[in-house]
Amino acid sequence: RTLFVCQLESATTEGELKELFGVHGPVRRVIGALVPSRGIAFVTFFDIRHASAALTALQAHELHGKPMEV
């Protein structure tokens, strides 16, 4: 249910990630986007099916002009 997201632009916020990933199902929490020097986050869904859908849909999705890895 938890996805590791990396290659994030330093301007990325937890709120942006919650909104982006939330299109695929309810997001329980987003952790880590506030560490800009690392560019990583963990996105946790309530349901593994939603996590799987987000993984498929958002792999290499561009955010702030930079492709992120899920």
Task: Describe the protein.
- By secondary structure, this protein is of the alpha+beta class.
- It has two helices and five strands; from the N terminus they run βαββαββ.
- It has helices at 14-22, 48-58; strands at 2-5, 27-31, 41-45, 62-63, 66-67.
- The strands form two sheets. A three-stranded antiparallel sheet has the order 1-3-2. A two-stranded antiparallel sheet has the order 4-5.
- β4 (62-63) and β5 form a beta hairpin.
- The longest helix is centred in the last third of the chain and has 11 residues, at 48-58.
- The radius of gyration is 11 Å and the shape is globular.
- The relative contact order is 0.31.
How is the topology of this model organized?
Elements: E1 2-5, H1 14-22, E2 27-31, E3 41-45, H2 48-58, E4 62-63, E5 66-67
Antiparallel strand pairs: 1-3, 2-3, 4-5
